[in-house]
Prior knowledge:
The complex is a heterodimer. Chain A is an alpha/beta fold. Chain A contains 6 helices and 12 strands.
Amino acid sequence: MKSFSEMVEIQGRSLWSRNAVKGVSLRGERLKREGRKEWRQWNPRASKLGAALLKASQIGLLPEQGSNCLYLGSGHGTTISHLHDHVCGANNHLDGTIVAVDISSRCMRDLIRLSKSRPGIIPVLADCRKPQQIAPFVSHRVPWLFQDVSQTGQVEMFIEACKQYLAEGGTGLLSLKSASERDTQGAFDHAEATLLEAGYTLIEKIDLTGWEEQHVLFHVVN
Amino acid sequence: MKLVWDWRFARVYDESDNVVDECVWGGNRTPGALANRLALLMQGRMTIEAQTLAERFPDATPTPSMNIKSWPEAETAESILLQEASIKLAERGVSESASNPDSRLEHLVQATEEMRNAHNTLESRIVEWAGMFLPNLDIDQHRNQIAAAISTSSNLHEIGDSLSTIPAEVQIGSKEWSALHSLATSTMKLATDVERMEDSVREITETHLPSLSLLLGPLLAAKLCATARGRERLARLPASTIQVLGAEKSFFMHIRQGTPSPKHGHIFQHSWICRSPKWTRGAIARMLAAKAAIAVRADHFGGEPWTSKQVAEVEKKVGEIRARKNKR
């Protein structure tokens, strides 16, 4: 058993988070009771952050509990829900916020439903490439930024976002899909070089093979 | 001097980050009011407080609040309000996408295509199946009538009568007959459903893309719009791209492997192209795509809508191209 926080741990071979909304399973994840606690299984196939937690050798992937997080490309909110378990907890008693940005209105409606049951999530329907659309929701630099947008030019977008929003010493996570880039072969090398050139410290390059093909999660510190 | 603002208040800082002036949002702090404010900020506009301070300190440079270390943290009540407002704003954005004809058109065009494919598959199945029972019938001649004949009959002999042929001497069980009959009925229904879909596409396209549908016909106009993923993007595409929209496969084959370039994509469906001799099609497609680009720009950017006069001019040019190419 490996514990990331009192809210997230690996039990056996699977990853679990303390369910902040007891009794509710979002996409049919397994729930299990343990005294007064309820654990919800974090499926690494549906969440790249989950897969990274299982494969990472360095610590510091998850944000501090109760901190402010910026999540670009939130999709349907699977990862967001587990992140919320960790950062906010039940009824946001940890007093964290997660600004969840996505451009698709189809994804946004799922995210809105999620935010209604989980205080602390701020859903934003906006284009991650347009910083002015996100700035109104982020008054301060954040200590934790995650980007997963599966678009061409992701690395450049990530660096731009980090420059604007990531606090000094903050953690930046970039989930990169090589198939999204023009040069599929050199995508990961190019990303690594660009990140180092921009002055970020690369903590770990986590290959998600096994859970998510052709994906690498870059863990950097500002 | 720096002018800094977020949704809560605006401040002016001097060079050593001391607060010189402050203006706080004094309005009624409801989620709805904040949602309006956030929408304004998302467009890159200033709040009223920021405007007031900008008038007082015209030489202060606008600075993002992220870059001010001492910018006050949100209080719990403010965080809760922000969440409620952001949900409201996101909900507005989601319902706006329903009023966008582009996304509706995309579903309609795709659905029409899928239903047409389904109809073709079912029809060819029933033609082959029923054809076995009608050995003397010229199947290809009566393709369109077979499903209709079955759906209005109650046994093999009636089908034979309505197609004036003699059915084979086979006994088929009542279950098999009813399966055949209901397949025929579904096929017929699908055909009318496809027509209904197309009527709906016509209705939307004729108001959304009036000039383009006048030039190319509403169904082709809708298809181009859906392939370009929206009227705005279609209006910004160069004519050469419009010409090969829908021929992506051969276009990228051309780029990667140097095969001959495609001369026409969806636009081929237009009778001016598909009914023209092969050697004139490329030139006509090029000209027609250029005209289509102009028409869609008139539609999107609020230009004068096209009339049959402009379409007649284009048709004249088609004639000229055909004549010119035929001489050689």
